[in-house]
């Protein structure tokens, strides 16, 4: 596949799929890949924030240099640098942030197909895992660093057979079991499932704040029932979704009033208010003044 696209030009509202989309981007190179299984190398030199992606298979990301921060669907933050790794289950939505202020981001991404997982579990997988698998961080270790150091040096110029790729993926999983926590890895692999995965609530809310969607529609877009969505939202933010949306829109309105040349009418329309008068009323109630008066005072 010819790689003609850049991560930087990817539409922000279009969810990436791993590992499939790694074949299409200039910043990613294939070390070995067959079907959903693969070893990929990525090098990103410019800042990329709030990139949403979904894993079609269990994936491992190992950071060689730079710092990359991941946000899970339940709002957990996992930050990686210097040989640290994140293991992510299949069919999971994540958000990725990278700032290039301290230099480029270089990392490896491994995707594991069913064959590699079954090979590790053996003919009788454990049945004790309950609930869905969740992403977790693996600390840097010399043995794992050595594995990745050799990956591109030795295999970067080879096509690599499916059996060779499976051998390398299985080797990586065995190393993780040895140096990290074998029970945690086994539980993770056993709990991996293919049901609908929930998305990061904060990302869904920010992405759709101006659309005046119902709570039911927001819940559906987040991959949750209304009950689960409302419960998860209150647990993360301490308030109902509607209150958060109202506060968020007014915060954005204040930023536009103070930092843009848009008229009050244009700001209200952009943020989804039904009328200019309704927008001014809500703004005054929140800030004790009108948008126009606030702008004049800031000049």
Description:
- There is one protein chain.
- The protein has 2 domains: 7-191, Jelly Rolls, CATH 2.60.120.810; 201-298, Homeodomain-like (Arc Repressor Mutant, subunit A, Orthogonal Bundle), CATH 1.10.10.
- Helices cover 42% and strands 21% of the residues.
- It has helices spanning 114-121, 142-155, 162-191, 201-208, 215-221, 226-237, 241-259, 264-270, 276-287, 291-298, and strands at residues 16-18, 28-34, 37-44, 48-55, 59-65, 67-71, 77-81, 85-88, 93-98, 105-111, 136-138.
- A 6-stranded antiparallel sheet has the order 2-3-10-5-8-11, with helices on one face. A 5-stranded mixed sheet has the order 1-4-9-6-7, with no helix packed on it.
- Helix 1 crosses helix 3, helix 5 crosses helix 6 (226-237) and helix 7 crosses helix 10 (291-298).
């Amino acid at each position: 596949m010819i790689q003609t696209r850049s991560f930087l030009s990817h539409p922000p509202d279009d969810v990436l799929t791993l590992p499939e989309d790694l074949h299409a981007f200039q910043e990613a190179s294939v070390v070995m890949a067959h079907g959903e299984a693969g070893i990929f190398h990525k090098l990103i030199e410019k800042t990329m924030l709030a990139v949403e992606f979904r894993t079609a298979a269990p994936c491992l990301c190992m950071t060689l240099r730079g710092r990359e921060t991941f946000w899970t669907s339940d709002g957990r933050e996992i930050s990686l640098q210097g040989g640290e790794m994140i293991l992510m289950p299949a069919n999971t939505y994540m958000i990725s942030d990278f700032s290039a202020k301290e230099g480029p981001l270089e990392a490896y991404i491994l995707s594991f197909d069913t064959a590699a997982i079954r090979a590790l579990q053996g003919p009788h997988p454990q049945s004790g895992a309950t609930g869905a698998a969740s992403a977790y961080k693996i600390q840097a270790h010399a043995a794992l660093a050595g594995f990745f150091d050799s990956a591109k040096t030795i295999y970067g110029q080879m096509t690599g057979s499916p059996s060779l790729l499976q051998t390398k993926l299985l080797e990586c999983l065995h190393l993780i079991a040895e140096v990290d926590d074998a029970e945690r890895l086994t539980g993770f692999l056993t709990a991996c499932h293919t049901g609908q995965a929930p998305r990061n609530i904060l990302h869904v809310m920010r992405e759709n704040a101006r659309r005046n969607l119902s709570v039911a529609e927001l819940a559906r877009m987040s991959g949750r029932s209304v009950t689960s969505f409302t419960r998860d939202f209150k647990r993360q933010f301490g308030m109902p979704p509607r209150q958060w949306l109202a506060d968020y829109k007014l915060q954005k309105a204040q930023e536009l009033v103070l930092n843009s040349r848009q008229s009050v009418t244009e700001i209200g329309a952009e943020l989804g208010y039904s009328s200019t008068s309704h927008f001014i009323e809500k703004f005054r109630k929140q800030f004790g003044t009108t948008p126009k008066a606030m702008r004049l005072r800031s000049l």
